[in-house]
Amino acid sequence: MREVRPEMIDTMIIMAEASNQKLILQTGGATIAGTPLSTPEDFENMKMVKLTLDSYDKLLDSLEIEDRNDDKRYPRQLVWLKDVTILNSTPVKMPFMCVFVSEISSVSFGSI
Q1: Coarse DSSP helix, strand, coil percentages of the chain, rounded to the nearest 5 percent
Q2: Which of 4, 39, 94, 103 fits 84 for a cystine, CB–CB 3.0-4.6 Å?
Q3: Strand order in the sheet with 104-110
Q4: Structural domains of the chain sorted by starting position, each given as residue range(s) with its CATH number in brackets
């Protein structure tokens, strides 16, 4: 059976943005809520995220990895969020977070 997680996450990101709601991700360790970063402007405006991505690009360049932006070969593997709240026994707030798609067991959107 084909993996549908990346497409479902993309759909929920679109719905969260359209409704001005938080994206809510459930992982094995916690529930994570935040605002999706999805446009180039979002990434440019978050200096730490931009610095992280620039460093990542330099690493990939040094490893000579080609075609890394080909959507057919590389479906969504990361979800970037800003204004993040990790909900567990003591909620933790963070300015941004990168969540690996493989760690997400369920996804929704709404207010927390």
Answers
A1: 35, 35, 30
A2: 94
A3: 92-100, 78-87, 31-36, 22-27, 104-110
A4: 5-110 (2.30.30.100)
